[in-house]
């Protein structure tokens, strides 16, 4: 489990950067302020970080520019190749949010953008407990992803997208495991983190967690 959406990115890899730049009207609101979101994640971490779901390497680029040492984990072969082609000198490993092999590294932070929703809520809890074991006290997790304030807000958003004919986004919201702030707060706290949330656009929130 946790890899059930990986193949979707075979078909999206070549046009993904057009989507994030707003060229796909259906995904324009999801990627609104994309560069600001990546920068905000980057500004909150330092040292050596694990980046999950590197995709085409856009967050990776920002992290490297700031002198951060990146270990990428990307389960999709095409995406992994795109990141590696862009940054041949870094490690981009085949793995996912739950299964990955990092040896003898001191990890200061764990980051990702538009990735954590690929796990069910139960798996998210499992992953956070695993990350807590990797990080020292004050170690950080900074994720940006689509999150809703309540389940009702999520259903209203799905209805809004269907009403304007954006069925791809609506299907995506129904298919993958987009969760709510109260659920995430519980999962982070149960794993030993203090977490805060910052709204970045109509979909994306920044999750900033520190290990207690
Ligand atoms: C929407 S893209 C985001 C890419 C990049 N982080 C960005 O912000 O542009 C999601 C990425 O997560 C990867 N992915 C899918 N399932 C995953 C999993 N279970 N663990 C880690 N990465 C996953 C996909 O292959 C894809 O590269």
From TrEMBL:
Entry GO MF terms: methyltransferase activity
GO terms for biological process, alphabetical: methylation
CDD domains: AdoMet_MTases
Residues covered by the Methyltransferase domain: 49-139
Cross-referenced Pfam families: Methyltransf_25
Keywords: Methyltransferase, S-adenosyl-L-methionine, Transferase
Record-listed S-adenosyl-L-methionine binding positions: 53, 74, 96
Leading EC class: transferase
EC numbers, comma separated: 2.1.1.-
Family in the record: Belongs to the methyltransferase superfamily. YrrT family.
Function (record text): Could be a S-adenosyl-L-methionine-dependent methyltransferase.
HAMAP family: Methyltr_YrrT
The protein, known as: Uncharacterized methyltransferase WAX74_12220
Organism: Psychrobacillus mangrovi
